[in-house]
Amino acid sequence: MITVESLTRRYAGFTAVDNVSFTALPGRVTGFLGPNGAGKSTTMRVMVGLTVPTSGTATINGERFADLPNPGLEVGVLLDASAQHAGRTGREILTIAADTMGLPRRRVDEMLELVSLTSSEAKRRVRNYSLGMRQRLGIGTALLGDPRVLILDEPANGLDPAGIRWMRDLLTGFASQGGTVLLSSHLLHEIEVIADDLVVIGKGKIVASGSKEELLAAAGTLVRSPSPRDLAHALERAGIPSTLAGDGWVRTDADPARVGAVALTAGIALTELRSAEGTGLEDMFLSLTADTQREGVAA
Amino acid sequence: MTATIVPPDTIEAEPARRTAQPIRTTRLVKVELRKMFNTRSGFWMLISIGVLSPISAGSLLVLGLNSDVTYQNFVRASGFPMSVILPIIAILAVTGEWSQRSGLTTFTLVPSRGRMIGAKAIATLLVGLGAVSVAFAVGALGNVAGSALAGVDTAWDVSLSMALQMMLYNLVGMAFGFALGVVLRNSAAAIVGYFVASLVMPGILALLAQVRSWFEDLQPWIDWHYTQVALLNGATNTVKEWAMLGSTTMIWIVLPLVIGLLSLRRSEVK
């Protein structure tokens, strides 16, 4: 479990992290969302002791990271896949991490296999790695000590589609065995598919947090029909406000089951009926962080 | 959407706290020694010491006069490449973590920065002792071969005191590089700083001593290069001379090291 309490980090002139509190629970994947420069990475750096907080605390299973006797065995960390000595081979980077943690060398081979780096790739220097390969190596380093907590900053960056699916399965499996995963990303689709809980940060402040279901409950329903106007009228008669979204789409805050029932009673054919979740996270993200977005997007 | 199915008994259960042993310092030192030479630059620095040292000693055989064939000259010749490369090894041992950003991993695996820098210092010292021993060994081989080739008596003209001072000369050079690394935490800046302090500054101070007589007496107390040359020549003998060495060490090594360690304790690793 990761607990962050009233965490603040100020730099000369601005506050990168402003009184942030949240908890990442075991057995769940917690998605950490926010626009560029919102304070995600700073928060994660404070968690692992690379940045000293101005005030507040961050603890892993109740202990400060710096007080853990051998942190690599309890917390797997990947903050920046490119932050490796470019002149070392992938295998050497895993070897020195394994040696530092006091792990047997066979863990290095196990990890290389787990993250699908071939032995010839592992012999190459990291300078010649693609971002995706560095990301895999970083994930291998994080998992090396068989930790129960993972802190990953943008781990899907640079991975190919197969890699993204692999990572998704890996993290879901990790959480289902009781592990704690905190994962930051700005790839909303990724987070939506994988996260159980969400923490949204904007300009250093938490703007929303809770389970994904809770946060997306307000997302409503998207329904498509050859006669959208009739459907909108039928919904209105049933006391459900709705809006025409173009191309036959009607959007409403009601849940899909109710909308389907109304359409059935009114005898209106539907071509599609689904929860608006797919667009919900993006809408939610943009509206929650609207005043913190660089582009000033009005959601 | 894909829901994550979580076995109910694991949802609330806190993962069992394993009984992790603290990381031992000997293990950290071993890892640091490995890290010094498992990069491309580290590997070539090690090779260049191994290759240049015998070449340098050998050149004395080829180019030197018969009167040059003494143990002192051979040790100095084989040690010369080391006196240049060892401080760079010391610098990179520290600055690589920042310039190459590997510190992100290093300091998350070992959050205590003081321990980490300590392990690096011990590893640097071991490399220094090892390298200087090699210089003495290569010098001895050169001396035996050289005197046989030149047909002169083998001259073992290095006293214990002189040997220790030659050793200290290299260790002080490494310590200065290490301190620069800790305070600057940037490979390029620290290497440039090292060469400015060891090649450019001595000339300026010597010039200053020539034109300002009051500085002439002061120079041995503040000129790092001056006390280094005395060590290399085995000429640090009196209490006053050792005090001069202490003074330059305070100014050039202890002071930057303390400043560097203080700022490093709270600095961000990015």
Structure notes:
The complex is a heterodimer of chains A (299) and B (270). By secondary structure, chain A is of the alpha/beta class. Chain A has two domains: 2-211, Rossmann fold; 221-275, Alpha-Beta Plaits, CATH 3.30.70. Helix content of chain A is 36%, strand content 26%. Chain A contains eleven helices and 14 strands. Chain A has helices at residues 40-47, 90-101, 106-114, 119-122, 131-143, 161-176, 188-194, 212-216, 228-237, 256-266, 277-288; strands at 2-11, 14-24, 29-33, 55-60, 63-64, 75-78, 149-153, 180-185, 197-202, 205-211, 221-224, 242-246, 249-252, 272-275. In chain A, β7 (149-153), α6 (161-176) and β8 (180-185) form a beta-alpha-beta unit. In chain A, α2 (90-101) runs parallel beside α5 (131-143). The longest helix of chain A is centred in the middle third of the chain and has 16 residues, at 161-176. Chain B has 270 residues and is mainly α. Chain B has one domain (24-263). Helices cover 79% and strands 0% of the residues of chain B. Chain B contains eleven helices and no strands. In chain B, α4 (71-99) packs parallel to α7, α6 (113-150) packs antiparallel against α7 (160-184) and α7 packs parallel to α11. Chain B is globular. The model of chain B is unreliable at 1-16 (pLDDT under 50). Chains A and B meet through α2 and α6 of A and α2, α3 and α5 of B.
